[in-house]
Write a structure and sequence with these properties.
A: 391 residues; FAD/NAD(P)-binding domain; 9-stranded mixed beta sheet; 34% helix; B: 253 residues; alpha/beta; Rossmann fold; 8 strands; globular
C-alpha cells in the first residue's frame, strides 16, 4: 500500500496553503490532496464570481511566503484602504483608514495556489472511509495510508465525522446572501458595512471597477423574500437598504447565492493521526470576513508544527506532536470568535443603541484606538509569528 | 589497592531506587502526561545535536551514523534519531522502560526494522561485551540517576569512536535546582512525578568535567537550558541549573 506523509482532504485556499507550505519546506517526502470537486477553472476574463474573500495582512504574508501572491491575477486583486461602518438607526459611523486588506475572488486564490503547488493532487475523488488500526498508519479509502490525515473540508467535514470528533455551537438562524453588483461610481478603495435596523450587517465589498460584492446577512423570513425577488426588484431593495455613505448600485451581475450562518467549534482540532483546519475546525459569523483568514492562520500554525516535529525526527501523527498546533489555534480562534460575538451582540441590541452611537462617535475621533483596532484586525496578535518553511 | 580495584570492578552504575521508580512510570507517551516536558525538550536536544555535528536539520540528516542512546526511557530520543536516518541502539536498566520503548516503536511502521534496537543492559556490561564503537552517544537526563559516575563515564569513553561525539544533559546540584526541579516541578507544578529526582544524586558540570577529563574527553560546548512553564518549551539559557553538553575525545598526538 502506498504511504504518504500527509494527506489533505479539501483543495480550498486553506488546504492548498498548507500543502504549498509543506512542499516549500522540502521536509516531507509525499503530500497528497484529495477533493471531490472537479478541477476548478478560473476564467480571467469573465464576470466576477460570487465567492469573494477579504484577505488580511497576515493571510497575505502566508500567501507571499509560499509564492502564491505573485501568481494571483493582479488585475482582479483589489486593495482597499478605507472601511466605513454605519447603522441605519443612527447618524454616527466609524471610519477606518489605512487598512491594508484586499478583496480577492475565491477562484483567483485557489488558482494561484494550484499554480504554486505541483505535488500530487486528485480531483473528483471522495473521502469515503478512514481506518485507524493500532500499530499502523491511517488507511484512507482502503487505497493508501498516511501518517497524518488533515481535514480542511469545510464545516460538514467528512474527516471530522469519520473520526468521531464532536462539534458544539449554534446556528444564528440567519443566512448570508452573496452576489456581485455593478456600482455607479469608480471608487474601489472603500468598503462599506451597514447595520440594518434589525442588527443584520449588509456589506458592500469593492472588487475591481466597477464591481462590488455584497454580503447580506438576513433572518430566515427576509432571506426567503430576498431570494424570491427578481433581479430588478432586488436591486431596488438593495439600494434602499444600503447606508447613506455607500454608492448606489447600477445592476446585479450574477445569481444570488446563500449559505447558513453558524458559530461552530470542533471539540478537538486533533486526534491521533488526524488534524482539522479551517472551517472543519470552526466557523463563525462572516461580518468581519475572518473565516478564511482564520483558516489560513490555522494552516500556517499546523505547517509550522509539522515541519518542526519532522525536523526533530518526531512522528508527525502523534498527538504529542500536534498538541502545539491545537493549543495555539484554539486560543487564536476562540478569541476571534468571542470578539465577533461581542460586536454582533452590540449591534443587535436595541436598548444600548444610544450608548453604541456615542461609543462609535468617540472611537471615530480617537485615532490611536482605531489604529490598534486596525492592527489587530489585519494581523492576529496570537497568529504565527514566523514561518518554518522559509527558514 | 587491589581491594579498591575489585570494588570498582564489581560495583555497578545502576541506582536501584531510581530503577524501581522508573519501573512504575506508565505514561511515557501519554498526552499531557508526566513525561510531556521531555517531549518538548526533544526539539532542543535534536537541534543541539545537529548544531554540534554541523549538519543542516533537513530530511535524513543523520544518515550513515550509528548512535547509542543511554537511558532510553520511553524511547523519545531514540525514535527521533532513527527517523533522522541514524542507526540506533538504545539501552536502559529498567525493564518497564525497555518494554514501553519497544511497544511504542511498533506503533510506527517506519521504525519496524533492526536499525532501531533496544537492549536491557547497563552501560558497563555493554562496554565489556561490545567491540563496536559509536559515532554519537547520548546520555540525556541520565547521570542524575546514575550511581558510580566514574565507571559510567569510563564505559561511555570505551564505547565512543575516536572522532565520535558524546552528548550529556543533566541537572546541576544547586539550591536553585532544588527549588525548581524538586519543589517547583515535582511538588508545585507537578509536571514531573514526585520522587523522580534525588537531589543528592545531582551532578555539577565540574564533577562531570573531572571524570570526563580522566578519560581524556573534552567538553566542547556547555549550555544552560530552561523550561518555560508558560508555553512548555525548552530553550537555551544563561542559567545552568539544567545543562546540556557536547564532548569529544582528546586527539592523540
Amino acid at each position: 500500500m502506498q504511504i504518504y506523509d500527509v494527506c489533505i482532504i479539501g483543495a480550498g485556499p486553506v488546504g492548498l496553503s498548507l500543502a504549498a507550505a509543506l512542499q516549500k519546506s522540502k521536509q516531507l517526502n509525499k503530500v497528497l490532496i484529495l477533493d471531490s470537486i472537479k478541477k476548478p477553472k478560473f476564467n480571467k476574463q469573465g464576470l466576477p464570481n460570487q465567492r469573494v474573500l477579504s484577505v488580511t495582512q497576515s493571510s497575505r504574508e502566508v500567501l507571499q511566503s509560499v509564492g502564491a501572491w505573485d501568481k494571483l491575477e493582479q488585475g482582479r486583486v483589489n486593495p482597499y484602504n478605507r472601511m466605513i461602518i454605519d447603522e441605519s438607526n443612527g447618524q454616527d459611523y466609524l471610519e477606518f483608514k489605512n487598512q491594508q486588506a484586499h478583496i480577492i475572488e475565491y477562484d483567483n486564490i485557489v488558482n494561484a495556489l494550484l499554480e504554486v503547488y505541483d505535488g500530487e493532487i486528485e480531483f473528483e475523488s471522495k473521502l469515503e472511509k478512514i481506518e485507524l488500526k493500532p500499530n499502523e498508519y491511517v488507511t484512507v479509502n482502503d487505497k493508501f495510508q498516511c501518517k497524518l490525515l488533515i481535514g480542511s473540508d469545510g464545516n460538514k467535514s467528512k474527516v471530522k465525522e469519520c473520526s468521531n470528533i464532536g462539534t458544539y455551537g449554534h446556528s444564528y438562524h440567519q443566512m448570508g446572501i452573496v452576489c456581485t453588483v455593478e456600482r455607479t461610481d469608480q471608487d474601489s478603495e472603500v468598503a462599506y458595512q451597514t447595520y440594518l435596523s434589525n442588527g443584520c450587517p449588509l456589506a458592500l465589498l469593492p472588487l475591481y471597477n466597477p464591481y462590488s460584492s455584497i454580503v447580506w446577512t438576513a433572518y430566515m423570513d427576509d432571506y426567503k423574500y430576498l431570494m424570491s425577488l427578481s433581479d430588478e426588484e432586488f436591486l431596488k431593495v438593495l439600494n434602499s437598504q444600503l447606508g447613506r455613505y455607500a454608492p448606489r448600485i447600477k445592476s446585479i451581475s450574477n445569481k444570488r447565492m446563500a449559505f447558513p450562518l453558524q458559530s461552530l467549534q470542533a471539540q478537538r482540532y486533533i486526534q491521533k493521526r488526524i488534524a482539522l483546519i479551517g472551517d472543519a475546525a470552526h466557523s463563525n459569523h462572516p461580518m468581519a470576513g475572518q473565516g478564511m483568514n482564520m483558516g489560513i492562520n490555522d494552516a500556517a500554525l499546523l505547517a509550522n508544527c509539522i515541519i518542526k516535529n519532522s525536523r526533530s525526527g518526531n512522528d508527525i501523527g502523534l498527538e504529542q506532536s500536534l498538541e502545539e498546533y491545537e493549543s495555539q489555534a484554539k486560543l487564536m480562534n476562540y478569541t476571534t470568535s468571542i470578539a465577533m460575538e461581542l460586536i454582533k451582540n452590540t449591534y443587535e441590541n436595541k436598548t444600548i443603541s444610544p450608548l453604541r452611537q456615542l461609543g462609535a462617535k468617540i472611537i471615530n475621533n480617537l485615532d490611536p484606538i482605531k489604529q490598534i483596532m486596525i492592527q489587530y484586525g489585519s494581523k492576529h496578535p496570537l497568529g504565527p509569528s514566523q514561518f518554518e518553511w522559509v527558514k | 589497592m587491589i581491594r579498591i580495584k575489585l570494588l570498582k570492578y564489581f560495583s555497578s552504575t545502576i541506582n536501584q531506587a531510581d530503577r524501581q521508580n522508573f519501573n512504575k512510570i506508565q505514561d511515557w507517551w501519554s498526552v499531557g502526561g508526566s513525561m510531556a516536558p521531555l517531549y518538548s525538550y526533544n526539539h532542543l536536544r535534536v537541534q543541539f545535536i545537529h548544531e554540534i555535528l554541523n549538519r543542516p536539520q533537513k530530511g535524513k540528516s543523520l544518515a550513515g551514523l550509528h548512535s547509542l542512546d543511554v537511558g532510553v526511557g520511553g524511547g523519545i530520543l531514540s525514535e527521533s534519531l532513527r527517523r533522522l536516518g541514524s542507526k540506533v541502539t538504545g539501552i536502559d536498566v529498567s525493564e518497564n522502560s525497555i518494554e514501553t520503548a519497544i511497544q511504542h516503536k511498533n506503533t510506527d511502521p517506519e521504525l519496524n526494522d533492526s536499525d532501531l534496537e533496544y537492549k536491557l543492559i547497563s552501560i558497563e556490561e555493554l562496554s565489556k561485551n561490545q567491540e563496536k564503537q559509536f559515532d554519537i552517544i547520548t546520555a540525556m537526563e541520565v547521570i542524575e540517576h546514575v550511581e558510580n559516575l566514574p565507571l559510567f563515564i569510563e564505559s561511555l569513553g570505551k564505547l565512543l569512536k575516536p572522532d565520535g561525539k558524546l552528548f550529556i544533559s543533566s541537572i546541576n546540584k544547586s539550591y536553585e535546582s532544588y527549588l525548581k526541579l524538586i519543589i517547583g516541578a515535582e511538588y508545585i507544578a507537578r509536571v514531573v512525578p514526585q520522587g523522580t529526582h534525588d537531589w543528592n544524586n545531582f551532578k555539577t558540570p565540574e564533577q562531570v568535567w573531572l571524570q570526563l577529563n580522566k578519560q581524556k574527553i573534552n567538553i566542547d560546548v556547555l549550555r544552560g537550558v530552561e523550561y518555560n512553564l508558560l508555553n512548555g518549551e525548552m530553550k537555551y539559557s544563561n542559567n545552568e541549573t539544567q545543562y546540556i553538553m557536547a564532548c569529544s575525545k582528546q586527539k592523540m598526538e
